[in-house]
Amino acid sequence: MIKFPKNFYPGKFIVFEGLDGSGQTTQATLLKDFLEKKGKKVFLTKEPTKNSPFAKKIKKVLEKKEKISPFKLQKLFALDRAWHLEKKIIPALKKGKIVISDRYFFSSFAYGTSEGLSLKNLIKLNQKFLFPDLTLILKVSPKKCLQRIKKRGEKITLFEKEKKLEKVWSVYQKFPKMFEKVKIVDGEEKIEKVFQKVKKEVKKIISL
User: Fold this and answer.
1) How far is CA 43 from the centre of its chain?
2) pLDDT digits over 140-166, tens only?
3) Reduced to 3 states, what is the DSSP secondary structure of residue 186?
4) Taking the complete model, does pTM exceed 0.90, yes or no?
5) Nearest-CA neighbor of 106 among 22, 191, 41?
6) Right CATH number for 13-202 from 3.40.50.300, 1.20.1440.60, 3.30.390.50, 3.40.718.10?
7) Domain map of the chain by residue range?
8) Strand partners of residue 98
9) Is the C or the N end of the chain the one with fewer CB within 10 Å?
């Protein structure tokens, strides 16, 4: 197993991962609402951020308004992530909050590798960052993900093409064997059924 800094703060750090359109945002929001009803203090967040000094540049690249090399893009993601941890995630964990992040460094590993970058180099770029207490990767086929994205009227961004998403998923599915505390959840079922599986995993690390 690859070593990252562990979370020794009072709060718990939960991450949702998967292909765009796999339902991470929906499940992250459902979990926030569920935990708050149980009396827990929750901080829901997302990567890439919208507020870091690097956010605007990342958005332009993803929307194809600007072009940079895949590695430079991953460096921007890492800078955004460092800001995110320092300004948002770690302060919330210190207060004992449950932090739920829609994406984290596993997105960089999966999407960056699909662009031809070395997984080893991507891990090295992110290895000083805090490791989540639980990462849930939602498994949804690339075809279905693209259908969902088109259905909700969103633009197809740089990474959202079927062949590319197939490559991305081939990397994601390796993570439970490579890293601790990473689980794959079937995301193709009805939202509530997927959430039942999410809750089951969360209850293993949080007493409810």
Assistant:
1) 15
2) 998 898 888 887 776 666 566 788 889
3) strand
4) yes
5) 22
6) 3.40.50.300
7) 13-202
8) 42
9) N
**Does a cis peptide bond (omega within 30 degrees of 0) precede residue 53?**
no
What are the tens digits of pLDDT across the range 42-61? 999 999 999 999 999 999 99
Contact indicator for 10, 93 with CB cutoff of 8 Å: yes
Neighbours of 70 (CB within 10 A): 17
Q: Which residues neighbour 63 within 8 Å (Cβ) at sequence distance 6 or greater?
A: 155, 157, 158
Amino acid at the residue 6: K
Alpha-carbon gap, residue 40 to 73, rounded angstroms: 36
Residue 115, helix vs strand vs coil: coil
Angle between helices 142-151 and 162-172 (to 10 degrees): 120
Q: Give the separation between CA 9 and CA 166, rounded to whole angstroms.
A: 36
> Which of 4, 10, 3, 6 minimizes the C-alpha distance to 99?
10
Cα pseudo-dihedral 88, 187, 112, 106, rounded to 10:
40
What does each C-alpha distance from 185 to 6, 41, 62, 110 come to in angstroms?
23, 25, 27, 17
